[in-house]
Specification:
It is a single chain. The protein has a two-stranded antiparallel ribbon. A hairpin with a 2-residue loop joins strand 1 and strand 2. It has a single domain (10-142), classed as Non-ribosomal Peptide Synthetase Peptidyl Carrier Protein, Chain A. The chain is globular. By secondary structure, it is mainly alpha-helical. Helix 1 (10-24) crosses helix 2 (45-59), helix 1 crosses helix 5 (123-142) and helix 3 (67-74) packs across helix 4 (90-99). The chain is 48% helix and 3% strand.
Length: 143
């Protein structure tokens, strides 16, 4: 079981939930925080673009393509590679685990391919990303 998010902003989550539901043709209540985007909700690669577009429009943020994985890569300051020949290294797994605390640790296993990373994404992954981007926008606006 994934660690629970400590505090959930109900208004933000409702909007994230609605964006997923609209993009995937689901009812809002079918979109749960810990649902796997691909395995549980049936999303395909093109759906990720639709979901990102809807979230960007709803929250007035810009979601970088490959945002979660890019954040994990950016965290590698010690010079160790993130992946070798399409397979995550031990350091890559550790960085991704840190970037995605909503995913149960046992899903970050040795031999995980970079192409398999999207199968780890939860609705909570996008919820956390939206909160992070909104906070960054507030800091820029205040600064």
């Amino acid at each position: 079981m994934a660690p629970e998010l400590h505090v959930v902003d109900a208004e933000v989550f409702a909007k994230v939930q609605h964006a997923f539901a609209e993009a995937l043709g689901l009812d809002d209540d079918e979109v749960e925080m810990d649902a796997k985007v691909i395995d549980d909700l049936g999303a395909e690669s093109l759906d990720f673009l639709d979901i990102a577009f809807r979230l960007e429009r709803t929250f007035d943020v810009k979601i970088p393509r490959g945002g979660v994985e890019a954040a994990a890569r950016d965290g590698l300051v010690d010079g160790e590679p993130y992946e070798l020949e399409g397979v995550l290294t031990a350091r890559g797994l550790e960085a991704l685990r840190e970037a995605m605390p909503e995913v149960p640790p046992d899903e970050f296993h040795e031999g995980l391919k970079t192409a398999e990373v999207p199968t780890l994404f939860r609705v909570a992954t996008f919820y956390r990303l939206v909160l992070h981007l909104m906070a960054e926008a507030e800091v820029r606006a205040a600064g």
